[in-house]
Amino acid sequence: MRIALQEAHKAFDKDEVPVGAVVVYEGQIIGRGHNLVESIQDPSAHAEMLALTAAANTLASWRLDDCILYVTLEPCMMCAGAILLSRVSAVVYGAADPRYGACGSKLNVADHDDLDVRAEIIGGVLQEECSALMKKFFTTLRLRSA
After folding, report:
1. C-alpha torsion sign, points 101, 31, 34, 78
2. Which of 32, 34, 42, 84: disulfide with 11, CB 3.0–4.6 Å?
3. Which of 67, 70, 109, 113 is nearest to 87 (CA)?
4. What backbone torsions phi and psi does residue 9 show, to the nearest 5 degrees?
């Protein structure tokens, strides 16, 4: 999660919502990403999506069985869907997202009874640090636009 936080700081430095993610397989980071939505004007350029793509490229397979995704903010519906479709076995996130969180806060896509794939969800890891970075970003953003 500390490496995911480093990725989130990269996003912060680019005036992006500070979310970072890493994918780990057999103890090694095989994919990493941070939000680039504003930088490349792509609504799908979430940290998780970029980290999943990098991991798939590393393994030369879209199937990320036995991989763990670490992300500083609870994944949204889009990212939770990609997590399930890529067969990631577990998601570890820092801060909950009561507005768009799809791994237990608003919805629980990753553990839905009607789906044939699931991912273990572990939330609240380094929650204070992840939340503090988000708060700092949005406070700074509000001050700039005031």
Report:
1. negative
2. 34
3. 67
4. -65, -35
Catalytic (active site) residue 48: yes
Residues composing the chain: 146
**How many angstroms separate the CA atoms of 113 and 32, rounded?**
30
Q: Coil, helix or strand for 22?
A: strand
Count Cβ neighbours within 10 Å for each residue of 41-54 and write b for 16 or more, e otherwise. eeeebbbbbbbbbb
Global confidence as pTM: 0.95
Say if residues 26 and 55 touch (Cβ distance below 8 Å).
no
| Measured distance CA(125)–CA(128) in Å, rounded | 8
Which of 48, 74, 128, 129 is catalytic? The answer is 48
pLDDT in tens, 56-102: 999 999 999 999 999 999 999 999 999 999 999 999 999 999 999 99
Pairwise CA distance, residues 9 & 15, whole Å: 10
Q: What are the beta bridge partners of residue 108?
A: 103
Q: Tokens representing 24?
A: 């780990």
